[in-house]
Design brief:
By secondary structure, the protein is of the alpha+beta class. It folds into 2 domains: 83 residues, Arc Repressor Mutant, subunit A (Orthogonal Bundle); 138 residues, Serine Threonine Protein Phosphatase 5, Tetratricopeptide repeat (Alpha Horseshoe), CATH 1.25.40.10. It is built from 9 helices and 7 strands, in the order βββαβααβββαααααα. A hairpin with a 2-residue loop joins strand 2 and strand 3. The chain is elongated.
Length: 255
């Protein structure tokens, strides 16, 4: 937040002047890479503060200081790990953004911070449980389908990344199937292609796309999709399409 001089005079409001609105909070991006933006732009943070913020954002609830220090600096002595955490928290306080809040021995991300992965997770979970509101189509946006913290290799990041990857892929496939059933073939294709782009070796995503093409009456597109996956699977996995995928070809003659 920008510091305001106590001597600065507050503007006078006329009866027709709208009331002042609180400035927006910070925005944290973890998909596609770490980025923290405040009202005045991107906030530069070093590696240690980034890791503290990312851990708290992914966990979603308060964590004990000792747990955070041990998880982030577990290869150090307890004293050194605690010192590293204190240093990272001091650097965050210097930024004067209030991104991390402390309560006794606990740390938590400020509720004022808007986290992209939380938004995507909520959309994907809605789809998983069968809620297909129009807002869930945002899952096809490239910024929402990006990898979680690419290039980070901490165990806690790898675990969160795989959990998020599986959630998004399943949600995209379900969204594709729902849109196909609803006859919204263009949107269904986009959802299916997003899943395939995210994981080219995932057969179920290719099958979902084949079903869209068959439902739309595009037998050639369905065959082309089959052939594309067949080539990828042979080259990278050394296997062929499953029985489920091959059975879809039998429907081409009935289209």
């Amino acid at each position: 937040m920008v510091a305001v001089s106590p001597d600065a005079a507050a503007p006078r409001l006329s009866p027709d002047t709208p009331a002042a609105v609180d400035p927006p909070g910070s925005r944290l991006t973890l998909l596609g890479g770490f980025s923290l933006h405040a009202e005045l732009g991107k906030v530069p943070l070093g590696s240690s503060p980034q890791r503290v913020v990312a851990l708290l954002a992914l966990h979603g609830s308060a964590l004990r200081r000792g747990y955070v220090a041990g998880l982030l600096w577990g290869d150090s002595t307890e004293a050194r790990a605690s010192g590293c955490l204190r240093s990272a928290l001091w650097k965050l306080r210097v930024s004067d953004l209030g991104v991390v809040r402390t309560h006794g021995d606990s740390l938590a991300l400020s509720p004022d911070v808007d986290v992209d992965v939380r938004q995507v997770t909520n959309l994907a979970r809605a789809v998983i449980v069968g809620n297909f509101g129009e807002e869930t189509f945002a899952l096809v946006d490239s910024c929402y389908s990006a990898e979680l913290l690419p290039g980070w290799h901490d165990d806690w990041v790898l675990s969160a990344r795989e959990r998020h990857r599986q959630l998004i892929l399943h949600a995209l496939e379900l969204l594709c199937e729902h849109l196909t059933t609803a006859g919204r073939f263009g949107a269904a294709v986009l959802a299916g292609l997003t899943a395939v782009d995210r994981e080219p070796l995932r057969e179920s995503a290719h099958r979902a796309l084949m079903k869209v093409h068959l439902a739309e009456g595009n037998a050639g597109e369905a065959i082309r999709r089959y052939q594309q996956y067949e080539a990828i699977a042979a080259r990278d996995l050394g296997v062929g399409p499953s029985t489920m995928m091959r059975s879809l070809l039998s429907k081409v003659s009935t289209v």
